[in-house]
From TrEMBL:
Keywords: Hydrolase. This is HD-GYP domain-containing protein. CDD domains: HDc. Residues 112-308 form the HD-GYP domain. The lineage of its organism: Bacteria, Bacillati, Bacillota, Bacilli, Bacillales. GO terms for molecular function: hydrolase activity. Pfam families: HD_5. Gene3D superfamilies: Hypothetical protein af1432. It comes from Pontibacillus chungwhensis. Its EC number is 3.1.4.-. InterPro entries: HD/PDEase_dom, HD_GYP_dom, HDIG_dom. It comes from the Bacteria. PROSITE patterns: HD_GYP (PS51832).
Length: 366
């Protein structure tokens, strides 16, 4: 299967991976031949990339790092908790007394799936649309955070604590007006001020709940702080920012830039990593960024790429030890289709580099 931009889809392309909404319901099934109307709907839904079937790549597979069951449980738990806080007159602390243990159980299941996955994390392996970005973002950040925390060697108890803070890091956004959260254009100063208040709002919600640790509350409070003091809400510098918050900052930014938003189309993972590296040492911890690079699939399976010698192909599988040096199936050489195609392992061919990524078609599809 191949990863394509929705803007490069054509009628007749066969969908290789189903399109889900954020509740896990299938909107378009795999195997469906796309029509122009379906493609238009995908763009309306805000879907940036899809996987299509392709004769030369039909054995290339992608895997989501957690099971559908755990994913749906997590989204349901996040949605239920956030909605209750937003709409209920009951004290927030009472809500967490009732739901906190269930949320912790979900975090343990996510952690178990990630550690059992034993592969670089790719959240492009299934395509989801969503009615509320906060819920999906909270789950994605938790997955990235736990993958990074595992790579950094944190013990299980600390990973569970970190994951609980991650899944609730944006709870303060329930206090931000929806029209501000979903505004498609640039925020004015007053609107940006409202957005920035979510960190302190989340901290106040969580620290008032006896069942929530103060460390988890500080994950909400500090995930927008930056090493050089340019973050918010307190402008803390490196030594004053909690270790967990430094991890969360990386996961939060990476998911934000690689997810489709109302005001911006999603970047690919390698582009998201470039954003992080641009802020290494000033905004983000370099050691953590390097560990994060090992944790995620920099070039996801199915992505069309161009190599430094001009050959073109598709990422066929990952190298466990070097996530930015995957296996490439060569489909085009010297401007001509390769028959039969063959594989190149960038983990061994160190003289070759990926110089370009493409989400349009390379070679001929069926």
């Amino acid at each position: 299967m191949r990863l394509l931009s929705t803007f490069s889809l054509e009628a007749g392309h066969e969908l290789a991976k189903p399109i889900h909404n954020d509740k896990g319901k299938v909107l378009i099934h795999s195997g469906v031949l796309l029509t122009n109307k379906m493609i238009e709907r995908l763009n309306d839904y805000g879907v940036t990339y899809v996987y299509i079937e392709d004769e030369a790549t039909n054995d290339i597979v992608t895997e989501f790092p957690i099971s559908d069951q755990v994913r749906n449980q997590a989204i349901d738990r996040i949605t239920d908790t956030f909605d209750k806080i937003k709409s209920s007159n009951i004290k927030d602390s009472f809500i967490f007394d009732r739901t906190g243990e269930k949320m912790k159980d979900v975090v343990r299941k996510i952690l178990s799936d990630i550690q059992g996955h034993k592969k670089a994390v790719s959240l492009l392996s299934d395509v989801f649309t969503y009615d509320d970005y906060i819920f999906t973002h909270s789950l994605n950040v938790t997955i990235y955070t736990l993958a990074l925390g595992t790579e950094l060697g944190l013990p299980s108890k600390k990973l569970e604590e970190l994951g609980f803070g991650a899944i609730l890091h944006d709870v303060g956004k329930v206090k931000v007006p929806r029209e501000v959260l979903l505004k498609p254009g640039k925020l004015n100063d007053e609107e940006f001020k409202l957005i920035k208040e979510h960190s302190e709002a989340g901290f106040n919600i969580l620290r008032a709940a006896p069942s929530v640790s103060l460390v988890a509350a500080h994950c909400a409070y500090q995930h927008h702080e930056r090493l050089d003091g340019s973050g918010y809400p307190r402008g803390l510098c490196d030594k004053d920012i909690h270790y967990y918050a430094k991890i969360l900052a990386i996961a939060d930014v990476f998911d934000a830039v690689t997810s489709n938003r109302v005001y911006r189309r999603a970047m690919l993972p390698h582009e998201g990593l470039e954003i992080l590296y641009a802020g290494s040492g000033t905004k983000f911890d370099l050691h953590m960024i390097q560990a994060f690079r090992r944790s995620v699939a920099v070039y996801p399976n199915g992505l069309s790429v161009t190599l430094s010698d001009g050959r073109k192909g598709v990422v066929s599988r990952q190298n466990t030890e070097v996530s930015d040096r995957p296996h490439i199936r060569i489909l085009e050489e010297n401007g001509k289709a390769v028959v039969p195609y063959y594989e190149v392992d960038l983990g061994k061919e160190l003289n070759l580099m990926i110089t370009e990524c493409d989400t349009t078609l390379v070679g001929k599809t069926k």
